Amino acid sequence: MNTTVASIPTVDTDRYAKCIEASKRVRWDIDDDVIRGRRFDLGRKFLPDGLSKVNDLAFLSREEKRLLSQVQGRTYANMFGLVERFICAKTMEVSGDHVLGDQVALEALVRFSDEELKHQALFRRLEAMAAAQMPDGYAFLPDPDEVAGAVLSKATWAVLALTLHIELFTQVHYRESIQPDAELSELWKDVFRFHWMEESQHAVMDELEWVREDAKLSEAERDQAVTDLIDLVGAVDGILQVQAGQDAAYFTAHCDRVFGPDETAAIHDTVLAAYRWQYIVSGVQVPRFGEVLTRLVTAEQGGRIQTALAPLMG
Ligand SMILES: [Fe+2]
Ligand SMILES: [Fe+2]
């Protein structure tokens, strides 16, 4: 718990050096390593059941559940492309602190930004491939630059907190849900395997930069940053509500039958619950996120965050 303004910590060069080492070791190419001339196998699922929650909809056939997992999996890739816009911008901004300082930290953060640019290019490619193979009518509604502009207007502390949360759940989703599922499209699964390999280092740097940023803040500034983080979670939920509505409508329009009002409502509610689970709740539950957050905020601030999250926790 933080009650005083700490002095700015020295940069932990060794930890950034390990990130560079890992980044060099796992580095991959979009075409040569990930896509390798393949297409999506639409006979298989994209997003695993534990993330898509399709089994909560018992009235759907096996084929319908598969389609819903593909719609959600397409949005999953687009969501990463979306958040990587502001993550890359913020990483480039915080790397400015090291430009005339620790050159190891600078290199690690430059590699991080470069990887996020590559990931965005990968996710744009996937969206084009999905568009060519799936029925017309899908739309990913949030605009990456507009969302990034709103996110980056908030305190750096809050943006780094949100970023750590995202980059931790990326890893948990892959390790616990995507990797063990043998029924997924091989291309879709490979994309998130390669993505996970480069994301592991990012979470380490998010934490280092978040703690470094925290040490610069007065108590009043940190309190405002907590408010900003709560606002950001609300903004993420706003995006999820819009996209869940869009994706549920696209899915029902492409099933070979008409659903009744109760079924239509259940599809919408399940997609929204799945998105809240994927992009908010599963990240909040990663122990490392809670550990760092608890170290940085007061009990009162932690309580404010809990209260804001409560309606989204399902
Ligand atoms: Fe990424
Ligand atoms: Fe990342």
Main sheet specs:
none
Any idea what the shape is?
globular
Order of helices and strands: HHHHHHHHHHHH
Could you tell me which ligands this complex binds, including any ions or cofactors? fe (ii) ion
Give Rg in angstroms: 20 Å
Layout of helices and strands, plus pairs?
Elements: H1 13-26, H2 30-35, H3 49-52, H4 62-95, H5 103-133, H6 144-152, H7 156-178, H8 186-214, H9 219-253, H10 261-284, H11 287-296, H12 299-309
Helix pairs in contact: 1-5, 1-8, 4-5, 4-6, 4-9, 5-8, 7-8, 7-9, 7-10, 9-10, 9-12
The site of one fe (ii) ion has 5 residues, from helix 8.
Give a description of the structure:
With about 325 residues, the protein is mostly helical. The chain contains twelve helices and no strands. Helix 4 crosses helix 6 and helix 9 packs antiparallel against helix 10. The radius of gyration is 20 Å and the shape is globular. It starts with 12 loop residues before the first helix and ends in a 5-residue tail after the last helix. The N terminus is likely disordered. The site of one fe (ii) ion (FE2) has 6 residues, from helix 4, helix 5 and helix 8. One fe (ii) ion (FE2) binds next to helix 4, helix 5 and helix 8.
